[in-house]
Amino acid sequence: MKRLAIVVLAVLFVLSTTAVFAQNKLVVGTSVYSTEIEYFKILSDAYKKSGANHNITVLATDGENSVDKQIQIIEDFVSKNVDGIIISAVNPDAERPALEEAMKAGIPVILQGQERVEANWTTANVGYSEADMGRMAGELVAEKINKLYSKLPVVKVAVLGFPKWPSCVRRADASVKALRDNVKGPKIQVVINQEAGTRQAGLQIIETALQANPDLRCVVSINDDGAIGAVAAFEAAGIDVVKECAIAGCNNDRGARPYIRAGKLLGSVDLNHQGLADLAIEALLNYKKGQKIPEMLYVKMNKVTAANLNKFDW
Asked: Which of 56, 97, 189, 282 is the most buried (most CB within 10 A)?
């Protein structure tokens, strides 16, 4: 009987310890811009995976490209008294009051996708060095220009950007700087710098650019969709993209991979979704432990080319 009592007490101790542990398990609320965009769907899944790996409950939500929707999500997180919020805000300025209320309630907020120069009022920001991202894309294009067109006096370049977002302007500017820093011989002449975040926009812009600049062959794009649209425009004009063009993008979208394998895109820049999610989750863990975390958390990125594409087959 005494042995049975000891066993019962031991079981009760384990159960009570487990219950306390469950009560103390951290809960983090995440909200992405829109899961209809491939990047954010992958990022949302990465948050959940990171949470599971760190024994954290992740309440993953979709902002659905709606400020009002995301403000409701933020208010719900506050009412649930989550231990932290990681958010890719649809409009950081419009959502700032709700996020500041969360911080006043003692909930740390990590903003994804904005560097401190755009938003310095959160607990911390997590994301990419836009300058590094653009530089990598520019270096890919510069390498091929040096192989094909080093004896020309001028090489014309189209920049497919997104001027509405300062971060994308920095990315595009860094691409051009990388070209000018790395191309040996020819002068780099930017003949067009225009918004093109989609394949259709990239197609239309390059089609128009070719009418005024039939010798245009080089494109740097802030994302892969714009770069793929550029490929379509050159091909429609009867230009051999593999032999004559130098085109690169950013994001490492799944849709870009066949183009990279075929040599139509020189490459892309992998945005390391899982690394970003881990960085944000671990920052919140450290914050809850009372540790000071950097105000800007940069995730490591890598160039993606046909030579290493298999390493990024997620």
From this structure: 56
Residues 272-299: tens digit of each pLDDT: 999 999 999 999 999 999 999 999 999 9
Phi then psi for residue 287, to 5 deg, are -60, -45
Is residue 313 situated within a structural domain?
no
Distances in Å between the Cα of 39 and the Cα atoms of 43, 231, 255, 270, 305 are 6, 21, 11, 11, 19
Residues with Cβ within 8 Å of residue 86, at least 6 apart in sequence:
28, 29, 30, 31, 47, 110, 112, 126, 280, 281, 284
Examine the domain organization and report whether 94 and 139 are in the same domain.
no
Return the SS3 of 124.
Answer: strand
143 and 265 together in one domain: yes
Domain count, the chain: 2
Q: Which of 286, 263, 273 is nearest to 312 (CA)?
A: 273
Q: What is the pTM of this model?
A: 0.79
Which DSSP letter does residue 300 get?
P
Residue numbers of the domain that contains 15: 2-128+272-301
Residues 265 and 279 in one domain: no
Q: Both 111 and 163 in a single domain?
A: no
Both structure tokens of 165: 């977002």
Is the pLDDT score of 305 beyond 90?
A: yes
Q: What is the pLDDT of residue 71?
A: 98
State which of 20-24, 168-172, 288-292 shows the largest mean pLDDT.
288-292
